[in-house]
């Protein structure tokens, strides 16, 4: 029901490294869950609008008034690698 | 050689940073070159648990832009999440609008607008390069000050057909946004950024060829050059019997080269879905009324008004109206002295523009009233045009009052009683060959006599007056 | 067990306010108990009481689920990827409760990112059920439920996405309220599924639930766009009977898949409700049997996006030694997330990915509409809908970890209310034995009402609680 290649593709989209064994197990587990979920395929949902919110609020807007930002030390305090007052990462261009 | 003529088809995708006080979804003030990571908070750092709240003024500006472009303003619009990983994207998704944007359709100067939507800007990624080498790997550093700046994305239909037309249209869009006051629209600083979609098709056909995307052309000149380069690249492929592939390029202005950005196998799947942390924007009558009330005169209307009220040519009127800063300077100067609109327009679009380079008038010391006074001094013959140029240089560099500069530097136009006739006589004596040529009918040779006089008088002699005096000294009858 | 600990939170509040009890002494008694906790219910315990208390909650300390951000205090959402993470801010609800006089006693263990129904998915080890330490306390708020049941906290905060307050409350023999979606601010709650997550109280009795919940609601939080002002105040429940209340019993949630002991306790409680004056009739929720499927698409889809921010850039765990960005991302997330979290990220990413969105996520959202409509229709004829809270009593540790679907079925009775965003409360109604034997264990009785019907729910639950006379103190007998 779900191919290993598909599992690898999804894992890449989700930025998850999976070993071959993990891919195999994931394929089986996802297939099991999707099989259970398949019951909704039988429903006739023609013309039914989707619900993404249960609250009926609209226009929850904020006035354009500045609020204090974090002091830099607080902003950076949890960074795994801090360099030149910023968060260092392996360069995407490298 | 292609058997058929190929026609370029160009569409633009423009990102405009809005000039709000705070970011799109948090209360951090926008950043203008502050030290890195000093304009951040839980929301724009994407800290666990933080939630976005929409900036009211960003919606207001979005509606103004939609109105200026003649778009349909959606009664209801929603935000989506655009999911992808990149270090400059703190939440792992960009909050953007997708299939229910704020504004749909519209048109500006014959170019149809596809949509106008709101989103948030990414942070800045600074590549450390070799200096950042640690354990052999290169590092980049993320500064989140810019992250979350409100952006409006404007997407056109592919209605442009040459690089020059694309540039001109973008200039008009910039002037329009500038007039609206919704953005600094500064291409070098990135508050206006343009991507282009380019394809070729047989002239007259209405099918579309495979398009490529050009990213990040951060000046009008680069846009024009980048699009031209891409058209040539595609033309060469088609002429060689090949097929254009769907690709994304980055234009390098220093080399003029196009570099492919992403390969196809890394095709993105953004997994858009409605942002559950935000509620819909329902455009109310009050919001529309506020946007309508804030609408200024737009450039095309301004051009028509300037032509009508000031007697300017259509071309001059466009030059001023489509470059808001010049138009503003013109109107302010005219308010100080309304006597010489056409001369003022000529000075602005000619002498001033030549001296501004990449600057805007407000970035110099020149005051509008001073410019008006300068034009009046030239118009009434108090100073010559050449002296006027010197005064303009001084005004740009130091500011001040033109009359005072003229007095201080002794730049008043010279008259007969100032000994002009003697200077002319000396010039003729110094270059008898030139004098002889003028006498024998070579009118152009007079330049050789005038040049030294101008140098001696530092441009204070009026050119017409000098010609009259030279002719008189050489016994040539004035043509009347 | 000291007599201090025997007081319910409401009794303790009254005792402090009347001067019979010193709040600092109470805090210290609970602090000592929480510090000696053998159930692994706590991941962090406060060192001392804050200097100031007072307020309507009089300094009675509060245990808080790990996923609420608490300034300077570990807030890890049960995940190794956030190990040791101390946020620079407090969740709105934590700040409100602290201001109301409920100081932070400790942070409680939970399933990682609230994904689970047994608290076995915690990155910090499983929690044990105080009624039988070989069994699970339910989840994901298992630490909060176990702490309250074991009397190592007077009361606690939990969160419920598909049953994560109600199901552990049921399995631990305490009261758990999942409020109307939007009633409590989500700002500062480390998100699992944004459109479903809702904070609520876990307490020893209904009075405590009303007291704590009353301080969690109020004006809407400007930092949470989806939060709502609570209409009116939460009253202290006093109702003595159920006269005139119409209870609906949905066949879809009260038949197949429910353990006989649970069903028997449920039927007995219905009978008791009748004697208290309620009418009890079958009601139809025709789409309820599809709720679990819709839930297991919507929640993982939102989670896959919400958890994208855990990328090793700004906070939390980063895999060491990765030389390129992709490897840094994929190894960080592989090592940092537990198996269930990865499973749901995969499921959610798949459900949103190109080509599957309509079939999965889009469809699930339409099912959600039908489920909400089912409830709205049911509430035209019924005041409240009642079901067993969980299909089983507490199950042995490890008994369902190998089978994700078996684990997901725990949420069978609680998920429909979550999808509809309506409030529901679970109260302990009896002890029952699992089919495979073992000690008598608590069974939960769930009451659900229309949006903002918490006063009605609390009132009905209070009347039932009095009539049931359930004694939960036995759970604390084995020591902390
Ligand atoms: Mg964009
Ligand atoms: Zn911010």
Question: How is the topology of this model organized?
Answer:
The complex is a heterotrimer of chains A (94), B (480) and C (480).
Chain A: H1 4-13, H2 20-37, E1 61-62, H3 72-76, E2 82-83, E3 86-90
Antiparallel strand pairs in A: 2-3
Chain B: E1 6-17, E2 54-55, H1 56-68, E3 72-73, E4 76-77, E5 80-83, E6 93-96, E7 103-104, E8 107-108, E9 111-120, E10 124-134, E11 137-143, E12 150-156, H2 163-180, E13 192-202, E14 212-217, H3 220-239, E15 248-252, E16 257-260, E17 273-274, E18 281-282, H4 285-293, H5 299-310, H6 314-321, H7 324-336, H8 341-356, H9 368-379, H10 385-398, H11 402-409, H12 420-430, H13 432-439, H14 446-457, H15 463-474
Chain C: H1 3-6, H2 9-17, H3 23-35, E1 42-45, E2 62-65, H4 92-99, E3 104-108, H5 142-149, E4 155-160, H6 166-172, E5 175-178, E6 198-203, H7 206-216, E7 246-250, H8 260-275, E8 279-283, H9 291-306, H10 325-336, H11 339-352, H12 358-381, E9 384-388, H13 404-408, H14 415-420, E10 424-432, E11 441-448, H15 454-468
Parallel strand pairs in C: 2-3, 2-4, 7-8, 7-9
Antiparallel strand pairs in C: 1-3, 4-6, 5-6, 5-10, 9-11, 10-11
Helix pairs in contact in C: 5-6, 7-15, 9-11, 9-12
Zinc ion binds next to loops of chain B.
Pick out its properties.
heterotrimer; A: 94 residues; alpha+beta; Histone, subunit A; two-stranded antiparallel sheet; 3 helices; flat; B: ten-stranded mixed beta sheet; three-stranded antiparallel beta sheet; 15 helices; binds magnesium ion
What this model shows, in words?
The complex is a heterotrimer of chains A (94), B (480) and C (480). By secondary structure, chain A is α+β, with helices and mostly antiparallel strands. Chain A has a domain at 1-43: Orthogonal Bundle (Histone, subunit A), CATH 1.10.20.60. Helix content of chain A is 35%, strand content 10%. Chain A contains three helices and three strands. Chain A has a two-stranded antiparallel ribbon. The longest helix of chain A is centred in the N-terminal third of the chain and has 18 residues, at 20-37. The mean pLDDT of chain A is 94. In chain B, the strands form four sheets. In chain B, strands 1, 3, 7, 8, 9, 12, 13, 14, 15 and 16 form a ten-stranded mixed beta sheet that branches. A three-stranded antiparallel beta sheet of chain B has the order 6-5-17, with no helix packed on it. In chain B, strands 4-18 form a two-stranded antiparallel sheet. In chain B, a hairpin with a 2-residue loop joins strand 8 (107-108) and strand 9. In chain B, helix 2 (163-180) runs antiparallel to helix 3 and helix 6 (314-321) crosses helix 8 (341-356). Chain B is elongated, with a radius of gyration of 29 Å. By secondary structure, chain C is an alpha/beta fold. Chain C has helices spanning 3-6, 9-17, 23-35, 92-99, 142-149, 166-172, 206-216, 260-275, 291-306, 325-336, 339-352, 358-381, 404-408, 415-420, 454-468; strands spanning 42-45, 62-65, 104-108, 155-160, 175-178, 198-203, 246-250, 279-283, 384-388, 424-432, 441-448. In chain C, strand 10 and strand 11 (441-448) form a beta hairpin. The longest helix of chain C has 24 residues, at 358-381. The relative contact order of chain C is 0.15. The mean pLDDT of chain C is 96. Classes of the chains: A alpha+beta (94), B alpha+beta (480), C alpha/beta (480). The interface between B and C is large, with 31 and 47 residues. The structure holds magnesium ion and zinc ion (ZN). Residues 15, 96, 119, 153 of chain B line the site of magnesium ion.
């Amino acid at each position: 029901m779900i191919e290993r290649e598909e599992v690898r593709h999804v894992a890449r989209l989700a930025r998850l490294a999976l070993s071959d064994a993990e891919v195999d197990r994931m394929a089986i587990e996802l297939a099991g869950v999707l099989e259970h979920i398949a019951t909704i395929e039988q429903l006739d949902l023609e013309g039914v609008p989707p619900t993404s919110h249960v609250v009926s609020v609209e226009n929850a807007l904020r006035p354009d008034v500045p609020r204090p930002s974090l002091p830099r030390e607080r902003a950076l305090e949890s960074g795994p690698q801090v360099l030149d007052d910023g968060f260092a990462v392996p360069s995407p261009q490298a | 050689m292609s058997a058929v003529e190929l026609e370029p088809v160009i569409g633009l995708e423009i990102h405009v940073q809005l000039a709000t006080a705070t970011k799109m979804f948090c209360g951090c003030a926008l950043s203008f070159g502050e030290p890195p990571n000093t304009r951040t908070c839980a929301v724009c750092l994407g800290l666990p648990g933080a939630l976005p709240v929409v900036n009211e003024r960003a919606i207001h500006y979005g509606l103004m832009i939609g109105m200026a472009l003649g778009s349909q303003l959606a009664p209801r619009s929603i935000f989506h999440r655009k999911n992808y990983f990149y270090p400059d994207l703190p939440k792992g998704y960009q909050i953007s609008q997708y299939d229910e944007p704020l504004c749909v359709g519209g048109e500006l100067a014959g170019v149809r607008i596809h949509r106008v939507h709101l989103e948030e800007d990414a942070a800045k990624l600074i590549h450390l390069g070799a200096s950042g080498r640690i354990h052999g790997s290169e590092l980049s550093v993320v500064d989140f000050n810019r992250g979350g700046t409100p952006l409006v994305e404007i997407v056109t239909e592919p209605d442009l057909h040459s690089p020059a037309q694309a540039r001109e249209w973008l200039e008009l869009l910039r002037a329009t946004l500038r007039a609206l006051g919704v953005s600094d629209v500064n291409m070098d600083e990135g508050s206006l950024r343009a991507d282009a979609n380019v394809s070729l098709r047989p002239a007259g056909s209405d099918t579309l060829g495979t398009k490529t995307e050009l990213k990040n052309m951060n000046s009008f000149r680069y846009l024009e050059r980048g699009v031209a380069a891409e058209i040539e690249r595609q033309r060469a492929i088609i002429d060689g019997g090949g097929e254009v592939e769907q690709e994304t390029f980055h234009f390098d202005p220093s080399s003029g080269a196009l570099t492919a950005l992403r390969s196809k196998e890394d095709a993105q799947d953004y997994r858009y879905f409605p942002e559950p942390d935000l509620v819909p924007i329902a455009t109310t009558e009050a919001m529309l009324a506020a946007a309508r009330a804030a609408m200024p005169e737009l450039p095309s209307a301004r051009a028509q008004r300037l032509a009508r009220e000031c007697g300017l040519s259509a071309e001059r009127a466009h030059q001023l109206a489509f470059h808001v800063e010049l138009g503003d300077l013109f109107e302010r100067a005219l308010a100080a002295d309304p006597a010489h609109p056409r001369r003022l327009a000529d000075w602005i679009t000619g002498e001033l523009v030549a001296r501004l380079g990449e600057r805007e008038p407000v970035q110099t010391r020149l005051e509008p009233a001073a410019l008006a006074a300068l034009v009046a001094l030239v118009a009434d013959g108090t100073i010559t045009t050449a002296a006027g140029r010197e005064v303009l240089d001084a005004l740009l560099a130091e500011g001040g009052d033109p009359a005072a500069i003229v007095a201080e530097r002794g730049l008043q136009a010279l008259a007969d009683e100032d000994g002009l006739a003697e200077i002319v006589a000396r010039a003729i004596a110094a270059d008898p060959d030139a004098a002889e040529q003028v006498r024998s009918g070579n009118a152009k040779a007079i330049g050789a006599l005038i040049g030294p006089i101008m140098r001696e008088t530092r441009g204070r002699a009026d050119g017409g007056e000098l010609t009259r005096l030279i002719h008189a000294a050489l016994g040539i009858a004035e043509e009347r | 067990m000291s007599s201090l600990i025997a007081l319910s939170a409401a009794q303790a509040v009254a005792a402090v306010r009347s001067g019979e009890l010193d709040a600092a002494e109470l805090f210290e008694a609970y602090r000592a108990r929480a510090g000696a906790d053998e159930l692994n219910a706590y991941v962090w315990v406060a060192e001392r009481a804050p200097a100031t208390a007072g307020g309507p909650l009089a300094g009675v300390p509060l245990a808080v689920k790990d996923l609420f951000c608490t300034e300077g205090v570990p807030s890890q959402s049960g995940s190794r990827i956030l190990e040791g993470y101390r946020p620079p801010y407090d969740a709105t609800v934590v700040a409100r409760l602290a201001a109301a006089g409920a100081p932070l006693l400790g942070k409680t263990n939970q399933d990682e990112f609230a994904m689970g129904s047994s608290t076995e998915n915690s990155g910090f080890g499983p929690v044990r059920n105080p009624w039988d330490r070989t069994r699970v306390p339910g989840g994901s708020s298992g630490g909060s439920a176990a702490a309250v049941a074991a009397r190592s906290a007077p009361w606690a905060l939990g969160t419920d996405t598909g049953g994560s307050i109600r199901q552990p409350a049921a399995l631990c023999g305490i009261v758990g309220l999942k409020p109307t979606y939007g009633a409590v601010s989500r700002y500062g709650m480390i998100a699992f599924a944004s459109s479903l997550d809702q904070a609520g109280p876990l307490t020893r009795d209904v009075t405590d639930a009303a007291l704590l919940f009353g301080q969690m609601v109020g004006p809407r939080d400007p930092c949470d766009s989806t939060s709502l002002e609570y209409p009116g105040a939460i009253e202290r429940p006093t109702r003595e009977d159920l006269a005139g209340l119409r209870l609906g019993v949905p066949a879809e949630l009260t038949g197949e898949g429910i353990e006989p002991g649970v069903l028997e306790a449920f039927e007995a409680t219905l009978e008791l409700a009748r004697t208290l004056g309620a009418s009890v009739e079958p009601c139809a929720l025709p789409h309820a049997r599809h709720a679990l499927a819709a839930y297991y698409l919507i929640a993982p889809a939102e989670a896959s996006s919400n958890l994208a921010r855990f990328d090793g850039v700004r906070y939390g765990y980063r895999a060491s030694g990765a030389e390129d960005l992709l490897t840094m991302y994929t190894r960080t997330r592989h090592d940092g997330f537990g198996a269930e979290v990865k499973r749901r990220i995969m499921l959610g990413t798949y459900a949103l990915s190109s080509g599957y969105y309509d079939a999965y996520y889009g469809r699930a959202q339409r099912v959600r509409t039908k489920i909400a409509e089912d409830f709205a229709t049911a509430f035209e004829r019924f005041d409240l809908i009642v079901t067993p809270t969980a299909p089983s009593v507490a199950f042995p540790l490890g008994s369902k970890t190998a089978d994700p679907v078996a684990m997901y079925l725990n949420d069978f009775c609680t998920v429909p209310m979550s999808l509809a965003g309506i409030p529901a409360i679970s109260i302990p109604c009896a002890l029952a034995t699992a089919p495979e034997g073992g000690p008598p264990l608590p069974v939960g009785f769930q009451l659900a009402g229309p949006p903002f019907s918490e006063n009605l729910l609390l009132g009905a639950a209070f009347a039932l609680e009095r009539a049931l006379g359930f004694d939960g103190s036995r759970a604390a007998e084995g020591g902390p």
